[in-house]
Fold:
Amino acid sequence: MRKRYFDHVATNPLDSRVFEAMMPYFTEDFGNPLSLYGLGTKAKEAIENARLQVALLINSKSSEIIFTSSGAEANNFAFRGIALARQNEGKHVIVSKMEHHSILNSARFLEKMGFAVTFLPVDKYGTVDPDTVKKSITKETTLISIIHASSEVGTIEPIKEIGRIAKEKGIVFHTDAVAAAGNIPVDVKELGVDLLSMAAHQFYGPKGAGALYVREGMRIVPLIYGGIQESGRRAGTENVPAIVGMGKAAELAKDEMADRVGQAKKLRDKLINGVSGIENVYLTGHPENRLPAHASFTVEFIEGEAMLLLLAAKGIYAASGSACSSKALKASPVLLSMGVPSNLAQGSIVFTLGKDNTEEDIDYLLSEFPQVIKRLREMSPYAKGWGMKGEGGECTVQK
Amino acid sequence: MRKRYFDHVATNPLDSRVFEAMMPYFTEDFGNPLSLYGLGTKAKEAIENARLQVALLINSKSSEIIFTSSGAEANNFAFRGIALARQNEGKHVIVSKMEHHSILNSARFLEKMGFAVTFLPVDKYGTVDPDTVKKSITKETTLISIIHASSEVGTIEPIKEIGRIAKEKGIVFHTDAVAAAGNIPVDVKELGVDLLSMAAHQFYGPKGAGALYVREGMRIVPLIYGGIQESGRRAGTENVPAIVGMGKAAELAKDEMADRVGQAKKLRDKLINGVSGIENVYLTGHPENRLPAHASFTVEFIEGEAMLLLLAAKGIYAASGSACSSKALKASPVLLSMGVPSNLAQGSIVFTLGKDNTEEDIDYLLSEFPQVIKRLREMSPYAKGWGMKGEGGECTVQK
Structure:
């Protein structure tokens, strides 16, 4: 059976052109970039070339890019690195309830270290109100971190507006652009951000490569101490092939951005229109300000996990915003913070398109998905009024 | 010109059998291990298989292995993670002067956070005296971290003896086994360590994969917060191909350990005997208790960097224990702590052999190296008594 992949938010397949660019650094050009001889300098040059490619994607300087092993590492590094570097100026940081766990859990770590953290509420679309950001700023505030776009509901946040507020108040502003960078145009100068996280595998690059943009002159405490790699800001022997792959993927994303976005929007709108016709199925996230390849829904009376499994049996790979489906088995905090009732949040389903999806894929999805829903509702105790399992977002841990 | 690689301590070439094992996870099997459908479970199974392979290499349980992106990350994670987890029990940690910068700089970070750190001295071979460890323990001591084997001088430390002391006193014991694991037999039970760091690219695995052994039941604060990967102890989408590669490399290292060690010792001894015949050249590190593939020297009157460049011109790739040669341009703290005078420390050269080096490689090295030394000494202001540049270990930063 042909597999149709609608889970690009989980990870992207590696672009064959990217893999080709990486290949020599696995084999003949395996040197350590710190070594002085030819093998080392070749690896070093490859990394610097990739740094430029990534910089060009977000309109920064090369020297403002620090490579990491993942978006999560970039988020931890940015968030804790700035909070610690500025702790003598204040111990209050602001995040939104839309943040990824790498930010939320870093924030909880800071709380244990005596920091105060504001977790900003969001509206029903998951949008952060810049005014709320402004109002939550105190004299102690040193850092604001707001996600660029939600991987769970696709909503794009008003980063530029928040950036303006942060700048006015002299507060450092970080955005987690893991789901955005490489998928929509991202310009650090236009956005007015001081730090920005990204991950290569979100735009057809390899796993194991992420990057943090750190605006020139910004002080930051390292997360990983050690050697002099990345100008002493991130230690560890560089993952040369992965970094090279990230660079190539960034170059391709930049070159093909308009086409990819155009095609994704067309297919996404067809998908949303088709799915929205199904009874008791609701779009989550913002109807317009959303990632071009992102379509997310809640389906009443059934659970995300069951949908995923039945869809997979039909060769359709998707995700569920309910973390239950990703082996954590709790109702999605993001959906709950948007005011989605916990029973409905359990029925979350997320389709994220990629550059290789076709119109025929969408047709297939639209023909199969309603049947999956119908079948599950026929089996569902909820649909029959048997009450909710896991009311309040609790569910047992899957073994 | 044929290249002869004697810098396995910087990084190893990737074993083609390892690359082959990784390949499918770059292409068809690109799924995210957290995903519930087939692509995800396949990736998850691959990671669990690799975890077992790594566990078998060091005689641990699978559940005691946490994958990281590098040895440096594993060291940071272990060292700070334990110190923070145990800070209510005490704020004193012990390391040696032989440690890698990932430990030394993590220690300095802890000092800034109000911890006391003891930096243990070593003897002229770079060996830590277990009695000195014992004497430096206070009621406040919560963690001892001693390197298993030095990448710079090859000396193997008395880990087992120190492990016994740590256990007696109820102190957590970590060893940085980045240069040791996969290259000499390492058994965490026999060594009596609670945590152990390793890096795949040190035993023919890929860059971008490391691991930390954490003994069952040990509390540790994460370094990278986020999702539920690695049982919530290390977040970030797993670098599946690199992890698979680390597993395969661990399996091969275990299977071929005896042969590799035997061959390395034979070639190393030939190399050491040959080089030791050159005037004013001294072996660094322990003459017997050293890594089987490791031969390191100081060469009087000349600088490591110059040797590296001339050797490279002859197709011989080596390293210099002097950090000057690895672009940091300071005299090696490790050599200085062993009592090597700073002028001699500048003339450090390190040859590290690999499984693919041949006896003919050693013959070639032994025929070329004396000529390199002779030529440099003829040019050297030091040999002519012009005094030392960079006395006291200072040298300018290379641009």
Observations:
- Chain A touches chain B through 69 residues (CB under 8 Å).
